[in-house]
Amino acid sequence: MKYAYDLHIHTALSPCADEDMTPNNIVNMSILKELDIIAITDHNSCENAEAVMKVAKGTDLLVIPGMEIETSEEIHMVCLFPNIDFANKMQNIVYDNLPKLKNDKNIFGKQLILDDKDDIVGENEKLLLTATKLSIYDVVKYTKELKGVSFPAHIDRKSYSIISNLGWIPKDLDIHTIEVSKYCNIDKIISKYNDFMIIKSSDAHYLTDILEREQFIEIKSKSIEEIIKYLS
Ligand SMILES: [Zn+2]
Ligand SMILES: [Zn+2]
Hints:
Layout: E1 2-9, H1 23-32, E2 37-43, H2 49-56, E3 62-70, E4 76-80, H3 84-96, H4 105-108, E5 112-114, E6 120-123, H5 136-145, E7 149-152, H6 162-166, E8 177-180, H7 186-189, E9 197-200, E10 216-218, H8 224-231
Parallel strand pairs: 1-2, 2-3, 8-9
Antiparallel strand pairs: 1-10, 3-4, 4-7, 5-6
Helix pairs in contact: 1-2
The chain binds zinc ion (2 copies).
């Protein structure tokens, strides 16, 4: 079956994302856009993923818990996990490898933790919008150990991408998927990266950024395990 996806969406936990990126707003917008599968991928944290999953329960929308981890090379990697427990385990590893600095709300923005009613239950005080001490190899390894999948984000962008920062994708990096940004013309780059599966997601920081029903994945059934298997 073909399913419409958007596997890179931020919530109000990301300081750079709009405060309207609440669990209910994200789920409702995704359903309105007739998406089948979304992933919640905040910067270096997954503290809002469970609330989004709860909101989507009982609907046809599948929500994957994930994170967009910034590596020591300042490369963004999208990581997806089979369940919230494993995502939280990765979050602990990420938190252990973040610099011990506080977020400055006035410079970067708030980092809101929300529940499934969209009520604010807290604010993450850590500086999330920064590089961890984890290398790209560490991120791939730890994600795999937690039965997840990771891939470099928005490789066509001029910042925080594996191509902008390294110039190439290392042959010994154990990945099979790469992500391009919303406005990238895949046809133009496909020949350069034919060793990889190329997916396109929105990297939504605003509700209107979320993809329309335009990108599809072909898998046997709509389950997180199937998607991770496909991207691995
Ligand atoms: Zn990014
Ligand atoms: Zn992002």
